[in-house]
User: Which sequence fits this backbone?
């Protein structure tokens, strides 16, 4: 997923002649605190509500203060992970997007980015989550995938985190099955440390009830 796919369809840019009050009104409507300022297809910069209040430009054209505008931007080909890094590091609510010719294409908001990331990591897909704690030197994605797929399951999303100055890694798996018992047993058999497990027990209970009903029907045949 790249920036081109995440552009907002509703947020327009400000023009140099627009004043600070218009910027604040739009920020309130779109629930953001940053807006791009453009001249034609050229990005002039990113204005924030802090800049408007600090410079007291409520009734003044934002273009007069172009030297005070913020300069962050990304390009249409950049991956969602890079976009997240920029927005998170600079604490932005929106970031302008340029094409290869450095022309303004649109803006990506934190809200749109969050929704896209939810889809990316399969949050809404049914399944369970397993968190493994392993030594960095023992990390093998191919073996982890083989264990999951060997139990007739698929990995829907996967990410790795590691604390500073530690050789321990947390590997988080979202798989497409609710009953994780067989997968967990296999990980234990391969000496993996299961740090935590998250699954919908109500769904598992329904699954077991369904299996029990099938078994009882079999006995009554």
Assistant:
């Amino acid at each position: 997923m790249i920036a081109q796919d995440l552009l907002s369809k509703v947020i327009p840019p400000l023009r140099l002649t627009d004043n600070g009050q218009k910027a604040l009104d739009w920020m309130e409507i779109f629930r953001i605190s940053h807006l791009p300022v453009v001249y034609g297809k050229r990005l002039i910069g990113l204005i924030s509500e802090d800049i408007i209040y600090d410079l007291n430009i409520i009734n003044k054209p934002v273009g007069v203060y172009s030297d005070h505008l913020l300069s962050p931007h990304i390009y249409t080909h950049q991956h969602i992970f890079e976009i997240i890094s920029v927005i998170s590091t600079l604490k932005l609510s929106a970031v302008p997007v340029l094409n290869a010719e450095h022309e303004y294409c649109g803006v990506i908001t934190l809200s749109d980015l969050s929704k896209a990331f939810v889809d990316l990591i399969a949050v809404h897909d049914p399944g369970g989550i397993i968190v493994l704690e392993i030594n960095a030197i023992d990390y093998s994605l191919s073996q982890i995938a083989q264990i999951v797929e060997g139990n007739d399951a698929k990995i829907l999303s996967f990410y790795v985190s590691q604390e500073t100055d530690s050789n321990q890694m947390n590997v988080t798996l979202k798989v497409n099955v609710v009953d994780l018992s067989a997968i967990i047993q296999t990980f234990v058999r391969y000496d993996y440390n299961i740090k935590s497990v998250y699954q919908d027990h109500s769904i598992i209970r329904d699954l077991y009830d369904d299996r029990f009903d099938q078994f009882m029907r079999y006995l009554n045949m």
Observations:
- The chain is about 35% helix and 25% strand.
